[in-house]
């Protein structure tokens, strides 16, 4: 007499079953590793009761590579799979009958970041460039928030962002160049803390950042407009830092050439005509490769 099973199996699971059988027939073997990165939290939503064995059987069919299943509550589990592909399938979710099986990251390194009140003409590319500059990346498209009951954008954009081990929070505001000039706009996300705008790390403000240097003297801890102690010291004519903090590595002869050009331009005051400006420009081009001169 033929035995008929009344076990519930999601149609999606049946599709993956054939694929998993093919892999076994091809001798497809993977090294099983119990990795935290491949562990997710699974929740069951619905009125039907799903046993642990039934859940594990369907996870194995839909995703493959099930290594561990730890019971947390009656409808919540911690599941470890063998690879990222299986994890992605599990995060996509599936159904057992009318009951939904939902998974979410155990290590939450992805958050929704909102840019408040941006002009409508600011492009998505400009927003993505800001994120890239902070060392994080978008994992979704940039979306526009709309006024309730309409399709009219209200200026706020939001995007799902993947954070890293070194960048766990973003600055409270960001500057965009708009039609009226540069302007700062609010940036918000969950678990946000104050960070330095240069290194994107907490614990200090911009002027105390090890990467922040005064443009006048090359020292840390103050802006050029606040610099007073180094104003009377000799400065390199190329990088404008004091000689003790010179970063351009120019030779003495090259510095003298640079000083000569500056002196000539200052003494003539631009009144010598077009030929003299061309001479200055020519000398600048000779030195530009190593001296990095720029005229203001």
UniProtKB/TrEMBL annotation:
Q: Which SUPFAM superfamilies match?
A: Retrovirus zinc finger-like domains
Native organism: Austrofundulus limnaeus (Annual killifish)
Q: Which GO terms describe its molecular function?
A: nucleic acid binding; zinc ion binding
User: Cross-referenced InterPro entries, in alphabetical order?
Assistant: Znf_CCHC, Znf_CCHC_sf
Give the start-end ranges of region Disordered. 1-34, 264-296
Secretion signal span: none
- Record has Zinc as a keyword: yes
The protein in question is named Uncharacterized protein LOC106511884
């Amino acid at each position: 007499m033929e035995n008929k099973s009344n076990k519930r199996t999601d149609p999606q699971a049946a599709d993956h079953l054939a694929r998993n059988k093919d892999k076994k027939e091809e001798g497809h073997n993977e090294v099983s590793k119990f990795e935290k990165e491949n562990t997710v939290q699974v929740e069951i939503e619905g009125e039907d009761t799903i046993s642990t064995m039934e859940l594990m059987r369907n996870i194995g069919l839909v995703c493959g590579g099930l290594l561990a299943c730890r019971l947390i509550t009656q409808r919540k589990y911690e599941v470890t799979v063998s690879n990222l592909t299986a994890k992605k399938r599990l995060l996509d979710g599936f159904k057992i009958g009318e009951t939904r099986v939902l998974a979410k990251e155990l290590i939450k390194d992805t958050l929704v970041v909102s840019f408040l009140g941006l002009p409508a003409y600011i492009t998505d590319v400009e927003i993505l460039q800001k994120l890239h500059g902070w060392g994080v990346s978008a994992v979704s498209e940039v979306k526009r928030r709309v006024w309730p009951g309409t399709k009219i954008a209200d200026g706020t954009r939001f995007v799902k962002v993947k954070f890293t081990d070194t960048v766990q929070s973003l600055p409270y505001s960001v500057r965009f160049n708009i039609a009226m000039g540069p302007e700062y706009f609010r940036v918000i996300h969950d678990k946000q803390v104050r960070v330095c705008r240069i290194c994107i790390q907490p614990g200090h403000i911009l002027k105390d950042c090890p990467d922040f240097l005064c443009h006048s003297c090359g020292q840390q801890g103050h802006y050029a407009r606040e610099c007073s102690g180094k104003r009377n010291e000799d400065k390199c004519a190329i990088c404008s830092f004091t000689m003790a903090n010179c970063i351009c590595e120019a030779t003495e002869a090259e510095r003298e050439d640079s000083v000569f050009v500056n002196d000539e331009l200052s003494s003539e005051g631009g009144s010598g005509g077009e030929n003299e400006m061309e001479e200055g420009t020519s000398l600048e081009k000779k030195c530009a490769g190593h001296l990095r001169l720029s005229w203001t």
